[in-house]
Design brief:
The complex is a heterodimer. Chain A is built from 4 helices and 19 strands. Chain A has helices at about 1-30, 205-210, 245-250, 285-299, and strands at about 35, 40-45, 60-70, 75-80, 85-90, 110-115, 115-130, 140-145, 150-165, 170-180, 185-190, 195-200, 210-215, 220, 225-230, 235-240, 255, 255-265, 270-275. In chain A, a hairpin with a 4-residue loop joins strand 8 and strand 9 (about 150-165). Chain A is elongated. In chain B, about 85% of the residues lie in helices and about 0% in strands. Chain B is built from 6 helices and 2 strands, in the order αββααααα. The chains are: A alpha+beta, B mainly alpha.
Chain lengths: ~300, ~180
């Protein structure tokens, strides 16, 4: 019996020490408020569609954030201080990140768990936007996220640009496209008349050039100054995601939106808008997310 | 003593059953602990002094307090208490209670000079302490770091410990009959 008493006491002491250590650790790594990943996106709203208010012409857009594992709040509304007239409807469910049906390790918890943190996704759709608002481009840098318990978080979201969708010149015809799960993509176009590639415009070029290698007909787009294309030629645009160098780079989302500029022999300009949303399938881990929070605090 | 252990056995069965109707627990753990508490009261009326009763009182206060807290505070916003602290506290309480109950049973058999039963329940107690204690440690670590493999291991160990409790409380609820039969013969 003495042996049992000794075992009992030893277990109680170890349980006490481990429990105390774990509680201190939990408090130490707990987030005061959810942290939203920055993203840079160029989105177009199709005003020709009567139902434009129910969605963007691009794919359904989303915000990603992480919070404490036991945080059961969900985002119920989002407003943008720079554009109070823009109303969007967020959808947050416990279906996991990026639309995939992840099962959480603990049924009471929401999102994809990484140690003490839970990674979440909030999809959103525009529900109200006065048409005249899009006369100029809307640039969203800040958002206020309202949670189901009444709390709110005002945060820097990077930059989201909303503009009217414009139709492209009919000098190039889309042939085929493919993309892989690691974020690489390829699009093929048929050239309908002799043209000369004379440059491109892109927002967020700093972010894009660090993370994406882009080639037009096997030539690096950043170095390409001129490319002669004849009628019937194939124009191939390839994008490849480069490994991120820092955590800030790694966890920053972006979509590619390039306005390719072509000229014909009469110096008439034509445009082709090429959009691609690389998959956001970064490797997440508790330690990296924790380091990210520390970097955010330092910024 | 058999009647007391029978109630403890029934209480543990109820604690295991988790039926909810419209998010309302039909047999909340509170009822299970009240039944176990009533079983322990029988020991006390029979003159067996047990410290365990005070621990169960503490657990009842904890469970009632938690229910009130969750009802009024709506603490699902940040459920550290609900998801981490309470499951661990409940298991630690269970760990202390059943170790003491087994100790009490051994003392009871020692007073009657039943060496085989002393050896049997001392061995039960040791197995219970090791399995349940390890299960609690793994549970704390799995809830802290949200590690699925640790959660699975701790669930298996806690289930084994629970089955062990059911086996020895059922066995103890039968020991009095056996003793009565032996003394009659």
């Amino acid at each position: 019996m003495d042996v049992n008493k000794r075992i009992f006491r030893i277990f109680l002491i170890i349980i006490g020490i481990v429990a105390t250590g774990c509680m201190i650790f939990i408090q130490y790594v707990s987030l005061a408020e959810p942290i939203f990943f920055k993203q840079y996106a160029d989105l177009s709203v199709n005003l020709d569609d009567d139902d434009y208010q129910y969605g963007l012409s691009d794919e359904l857009f989303s915000f990603n954030y992480f919070t404490n594992a036991e945080d059961k709040r969900v985002v119920s509304y989002v407003s943008f201080p720079e554009y109070p007239d823009l109303h969007i409807q967020p959808f947050e469910d416990d279906w996991g990140m990026f639309g995939l049906d992840f099962e959480t390790e603990q049924p009471d918890l929401i999102g994809q768990l990484y140690g003490r943190y839970s990674l979440r996704e909030v999809l959103w759709q525009i529900v109200d936007l006065p048409e005249e608002s899009l006369d100029n481009e809307l640039i969203l840098n800040e958002a206020i996220f309202y949670f189901s318990d009444g709390s709110e978080v005002k945060t820097d979201i990077g930059q989201i640009r909303l503009s009217r969708s414009a139709s492209d010149s009919e000098i190039i015809e889309f042939l085929s496209g493919s993309s892989s799960s690691d974020g690489d993509s390829r699009s093929n176009f048929k050239v309908l008349k002799p043209i000369n590639f004379s440059g491109f415009e892109a927002h967020f070029l700093d972010q894009i050039s660090q993370r994406v290698e882009m080639k037009i007909n096997n030539q690096n787009i950043y170095d390409l100054e001129e490319l002669q294309l004849e009628e019937g030629d194939t124009l191939t645009i390839v994008s490849q995601i480069k490994p991120a160098q820092t955590l800030q780079e790694r966890y920053t989302r972006f979509n590619l939106s390039l306005k390719l500029i072509f000229t014909d022999e009469k110096d008439q300009e034509y445009y082709l808008t090429w959009k691609e949303s690389p998959s956001f399938r970064e490797d997440f881990s508790f330690t990296d997310l924790y380091k990210y929070t520390k970097e955010q605090e330092g910024l | 003593m058999a009647a007391g252990f029978r109630r403890v056995f029934i209480g543990m069965i109820i604690a295991f059953i988790d039926i909810e109707l419209f998010n309302l627990a039909l047999l909340p753990s509170l009822i299970a602990w009240l039944i176990i508490y009533s079983g322990l009261s029988i020991f006390e009326t029979k003159g067996i002094i047990i410290l365990t009763e005070k621990i169960i009182c503490g657990m009842l206060v904890l469970l009632i307090g938690t229910d009130i807290y969750l009802f009024f505070i709506q603490a699902d916003h940040y459920g550290l208490l609900q998801n981490v602290i309470l499951p661990v506290l409940a298991l630690v309480g269970q760990f202390i209670i059943f170790h003491r109950l087994l100790g009490m049973a051994v003392a009871y058999f020692a007073a009657r000079g039943e060496q085989d039963l002393i050896a049997k329940y001392t061995r039960h107690n040791r197995i219970y302490l090791i399995v349940q204690g390890t299960g609690i440690l793994l549970l704390i670590l799995s809830l802290t770091f949200n590690l699925e493999i640790l959660l699975l291991l701790s669930s298996v160990l806690n289930l084994i410990a629970f089955i062990d409790i059911l086996i020895f409380t059922y066995g103890l609820s039968r020991e009095d009959y056996r003793y009565m039969r032996i003394t009659k013969n």
